[in-house]
Amino acid sequence: MTDKDNIMLEEFFKQAAQQQIEDNGFTERVMMNLPDRKIELIRKMSCVWTLVCIAAGIALFFFLGGWQVLEGLVFGGLRMMLGWLEVMLVTAPTTEIPINPWVILLMVAFVLIYLPYQTYRKLSATL
Amino acid sequence: MAELSDISLVTQVAVFRNKKAFDQLVRKYQSPVRRFFLNQTLGDEQLSDDLAQETFIKAYVNITKFRGISSFSTWLMRIAYNVFYDEVRSRKQTEDIDESPAVRHTSASGDSNLKMDIYAALALLKSEERTCITMQLIDGYPIEQISKITGIAENTVKSHLKRGKDKMANYLKQNGYDR
């Protein structure tokens, strides 16, 4: 890189360096697109309000014994389900359930004919 | 309204959200910011204006973060630099600004042949080389300030300038500018 090259580069960029870009409404467009302070404030307030509500909810949950309620619901539901399963297992072998052969036939037809047909139709439509 | 210094305008915007003060700042700096983007995008006016607008909006939103350690123009150019490189990164998957042909981007609004040559020459450079070259030779920033704006170490800026100038000089010689 010689001094001559440097001078040549400076000359080459001289015009670009002096170029001033006219505003042509640019500033107005920027000013129109600036975020509104009121909207900004409302957005911030709504964020703060959401956080306050979450904090209040968590505090109330612990203060009013929310864990016990949750525990009761989970374990109560589990106990009920186990009880129902136990009754079914004990009574099922001795219970007579009337079976309609037409219903069985319809179910078999649904599984063996209708389902494969629908699957084939959907696959051929996508491929 | 009398011409106020940058610091007092920034203070008015930061403390009172004075839009008139910000309007003055935009008017004052729109030309260097838009010119910076024009050079980086190789003359794509639409993209340059969009990026310049984004720069000013970011400056307005984050004006309270301006500490006054550097000048307002340096701070603004740093935002512009970051906006441009965010755009480059987001476009990398689809279209590379670096490799876009200069002629395609050149505006139809009466650009001279020299201007087309400048963009064609700048298109030969790598993105960082182009940034350093245009900041020094067009915007007139010293190496120290280029380093502050770009966050690139001064020695690396010097290397980019050296490599970029070599490429440009070769291009100019091949196109008869040395005669």
Overall description:
The complex is a heterodimer of chains A (127) and B (179). By secondary structure, chain A is mainly α. Chain A has one domain (3-94). Helices cover 80% and strands 0% of the residues of chain A. Chain A has helices at residues 3-18, 26-32, 37-63, 66-91, 101-126. Chain A is elongated. The model of chain A has no long low-confidence stretch (mean pLDDT 87). Chain B has one domain (6-174): Butyryl-CoA Dehydrogenase, subunit A, domain 3. In chain B, helix 2 (19-40) packs antiparallel against helix 3 (45-61). With 179 residues, chain B is an all-alpha fold. Chain B is elongated. Helices cover 69% and strands 0% of the residues of chain B. The longest helix of chain B has 22 residues, at 19-40. Chain B has 9 helices and no strands.
| SSE string of chain A, helices as H and strands as E | HHHHH
Main sheet attributes: strand count, strand direction, barrel closure of chain B: none
Rg calc of chain B: 17 Å
What would you say the CATH architecture of chain B is?
A: Up-down Bundle
Protein structure class of chain B? mainly alpha
Whole-angstrom Rg of chain A: 38 Å
Largest sheet of chain A: none
Arithmetic mean of pLDDT of chain A: 87
**Overall number of domains of chain B:** 1
Shape of chain A: elongated
Number of strands of chain B: 0
- Counted beta strands of chain A: 0
State mean pLDDT of chain B (0 to 100 scale): 86
**Series of H and E elements of chain B:** HHHHHHHHH
Distance from first to last alpha carbon of chain A? 63 Å
The low-confidence parts of chain A are none
Largest interface between protein chains, with number of residues from each side: A-B, 26 and 37 residues
Oligomer: heterodimer
Structural class of chain A: mainly alpha
Q: Give me the number of helical elements of chain A.
A: 5
Shape of chain B: elongated
Outline:
By secondary structure, chain A is mostly helical. Chain A is built from 5 helices and no strands.
